[in-house]
Amino acid sequence: MQKTFLKKLKYRFGDLLAIVLLTLAISIFRGLSLKALVFMAKIFGSIAFHFSKKYRERVIENLSIAFGREKDLNEIKKLTKEIFFHLALTPLETIYLIANAFPFERFLLKIKIQGKEFLDASLANGKGVIALGAHLGSFTLLGSRLAVEGYPFNLVVNVGHFPKLWERLAFLQGIVGQKTFPLKPTTTSIKKSLNCLHRNEILYLVADEQQRRGGIPVPYFNKKAYTAMGPAIFSLKTGAPILPMFVLRKNEIQRTLVIGNPIQIERTLDEKKDIETLTAKFTKIIEETVRQYPSQWSWLNRRWKLPRQESILDSEATAV
After folding, report:
1. How many other CB atoms are found less than 10 A from the CB of residue 5?
2. Which of 11, 97, 136, 318 would suit a FRET pair with 90, their CA atoms being 20 to 30 Å apart?
3. Is 30 in a helix, a strand, or coil?
C-alpha cells in the first residue's frame, strides 16, 4: 500500500512539474524561429541518442524487425540517429504551436494541405469522418491545422498519469478550435466519439500502437502486430469513412498535411471479418507511409510484442 501511495505521489508531482515546465517553455518559445527550434531538436535528439541506451537499443531492435532484410546494421544505426532528432522535434513543435499560434500565418498556415478534396467530399455525405493517424511526423499539429480551416476537429487522448498536463494542453489547443477528450472512462469516450460523427465532424484516432488487450493481430512489416480496432468499428457502425491523415516533414522547415483517399472494403455479412479486413487495410496504409518516411515514425513502441495471454499460448505450443 505504501508503494502504491508513493507511486501515485510521484506521478502527481511529475504532472505538476510538467505544467510548470510547459508554462516556462511557452514563454521561451514565443517569437523563436523555426530554425532555432530545429537546432534545439538536434541537440536534444543527439543527447538522447547517446545517453539513452535502453531506448536506443529498442529503436535498433524494432528497425531490425522491420528492415532487417533490407538494411544492414550501419544503415539502421544511421537511421536511429535521425529518428531521435524527429522524436525530440515533435514535442518541441507542440509547444512552439501553442506559443506561436497567433497570427495563424506565423506557423499554422505555413503547413500545406494536400488532398483536401477527399475530406470535403467525405464530409458532404453527412456521416462525419474518421481521421486515421499515427505517431508519424508532426502529428500533434494536425488537429490545429484543420481547425483553423474551419473543420470541427475532435481528438481522443490517453492522459495516462498526467491528467493535469493534458487538461492544460486541451485548453490551449481548444483556443484554436481543436476539441480534446480523454480515452477513459471508455464508455464516455465512445459516446462522445459517436456524437461527433453524428454531428458530421472529424474524429482523429491514432492507431499504430501495440495493444495489450482488445486488439487483433494483423500484418505490420510482415509480422503479426496487435492493432486497435476502433477506427474500423466506428466506421462500420456509423458509415463514416476512414481517411488517412499525416503531417509529414518534407524537410526540417516545411510540412505538408497529406489526406488520402477513403479506405474502403467490400462488406460481407460477417461483421467480425469486416472489422479484421478493414483494420488490416488501414494498418497497411500506415506501414506504406512509414516506409516512405521511416525516420519520422516513433520506433519506441513495442509494436510487435504479444499480449500476455498470446505469449503464454505460444510458449505452450512450442513446448508441445
Report:
1. 9
2. 11
3. coil
Instruction: Report the candidate in 261, 208, 198, 259 with the shortest Cα–Cα distance to residue 230.
Output: 208
Which cell goes with 229?
480496432
Q: What is the DSSP letter of 12?
A: H
Decide if 206 contacts 134 (C-beta within 8 A).
yes
CB-based burial of residue 85 (10 Å sphere; 0-12 exposed, 13-18 middle, 19+ buried)? buried
Strand partners, 129: 202
Interatomic CA distance for residues 150 and 81, integer angstroms:
37
Would you give the end-to-end CA distance of the chain in angstroms? 40
What does the chain come to in residues?
A: 320
- Residue ranges in the chain whose pLDDT is less than 70: 1-7, 308-320
Per-residue pLDDT at 169:
87
Q: pTM here? A: 0.92
The CA distance from 314 to 320, in Å, is 10
> What pLDDT, on a 0 to 100 scale, did the predictor assign at position 314?
43
Q: Tell me the pLDDT tens digit for each residue of 194-251.
A: 999 999 999 999 999 998 777 999 999 999 999 999 999 999 999 999 999 999 999 9
pLDDT value at position 160? 84
Handedness of CA 50, 52, 53, 58 (dihedral sign): negative
Domain parsing of the chain, residue ranges: 2-304
